[in-house]
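step=encode ok
step=design start
structure_in=
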């Protein structure tokens, strides 16, 4: 564990699993105090490390800061070896979660985040730093965007529904307008013409049923992915599938999520996994049976997810994506999140210059080959 002391403030880079595990009580307290998102919780970090990162041979790089001995900032990261270079990325599966630093929103937050960023750059041995989905409203985004060697930056739309203080569920629904010409509750009525519709939250302790439903959701998602020609790495990851189940129930950490399932005549037609709020809940993963696509079971699952969050006093974050249902439930409010990668070492710069040179040389070779096949001699040969 590396140490740097500046008055009473100290930044540490934790690389040892036992020391990481020992952070739980302090981490839980900071997460509650800072009203952290589910992906900033110790439960998420530990499960991600134990079930995804460690099995893939990644290296723990968790940055923490203490003021007078009290834990005031946590940023769980990991180092990934790719060929001859090291990439620093957020700890966790590549499933679409935001990147942010867990810190209380007070006068010291900006300085703590800046210290975390400098620690990541200087003490984690990274040639490249990859930051997916950083909200542009965060100080972390300001720091990343100022870097000199930004390799790429891609913008994503992000939507979230503010549900607290909206009166009753019916009052909230009346304020929304329509989605695809339909008001909330309409899609359930359409599906009910096919049979008996039921919605329930699966008991987290029912591990076997949870695993079976998540497997079914993944199969549905893969079928959809094949139809539309989109394929994400995590969609074929058994580790990510297992990780989602552990978020719902694990013997090691408190449950961080719930599985809501929509059934037709007792058979699943849609499901969605949603995190427990603090007070923000997050829609994590969803899948639906394409056979009943005309009845929009996926939209029913989303509506039931929003209703569950509403009734439990949570706001709901839909994450990145420009899907129409997200902006509908968010009443058209949207922000921007950026996926950014920077070059962080001379060795990394050398890699970039080498790649660019290789592309230039390959382009010159193609031009020469093209001229050779279209020159006078080539035309004469063709004539013969």
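sequence_out=
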């Amino acid at each position: 564990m590396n140490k740097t002391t500046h008055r009473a403030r100290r930044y540490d880079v934790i690389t040892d699993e036992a020391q990481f595990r020992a952070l739980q009580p302090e981490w839980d307290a900071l997460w509650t105090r800072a009203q952290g998102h589910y992906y900033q919780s110790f439960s998420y970090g530990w499960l991600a490390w134990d079930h995804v990162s460690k099995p893939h041979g990644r290296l723990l790089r968790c940055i923490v800061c203490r003021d007078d001995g009290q834990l005031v900032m946590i940023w769980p990261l990991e180092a990934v070896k790719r060929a001859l270079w090291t990439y620093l990325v957020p700890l966790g599966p590549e499933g679409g979660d935001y990147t942010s630093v867990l810190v209380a929103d007070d006068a010291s937050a900006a300085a703590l985040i800046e210290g975390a960023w400098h620690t990541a750059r200087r003490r984690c041995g990274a040639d490249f730093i990859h930051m997916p989905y950083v909200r542009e409203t965060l100080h972390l985004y300001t720091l990343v965007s100022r870097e000199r060697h930004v390799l790429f930056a891609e913008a994503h739309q992000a939507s979230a529904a503010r549900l607290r203080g909206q009166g009753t569920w019916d009052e909230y629904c009346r304020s929304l307008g329509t989605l695809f010409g339909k008001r909330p509750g309409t899609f359930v009525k359409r599906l009910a013409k096919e049979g008996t519709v039921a919605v329930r939250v699966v008991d987290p302790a029912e591990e076997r049923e949870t695993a079976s439903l998540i497997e079914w959701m993944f199969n549905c998602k893969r079928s959809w992915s094949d139809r539309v020609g989109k394929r994400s790495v995590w969609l074929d990851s058994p580790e990510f599938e297992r990780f989602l189940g552990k978020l719902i129930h694990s013997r090691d950490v408190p449950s961080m999520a719930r599985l809501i399932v929509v059934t037709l005549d007792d058979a699943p037609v849609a499901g969605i996994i949603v995190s427990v709020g603090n007070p923000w809940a997050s829609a994590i993963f969803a899948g639906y049976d394409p056979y009943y696509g005309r009845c929009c079971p996926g939209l029913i699952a989303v509506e039931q997810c929003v209703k569950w969050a509403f009734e439990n006093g949570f706001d709901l974050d839909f994450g990145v994506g420009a899907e129409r249902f997200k902006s509908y439930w968010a009443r058209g409010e949207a922000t921007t999140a950026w996926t950014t990668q920077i070059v962080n070492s001379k060795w990394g710069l050398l890699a970039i210059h080498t790649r660019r040179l290789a592309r230039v040389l390959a382009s010159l070779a193609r031009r020469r080959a093209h001229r050779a096949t279209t020159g006078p001699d080539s035309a004469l040969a063709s004539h013969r």
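step=design ok
step=annotate ok -> Residues 345-376 form one domain.
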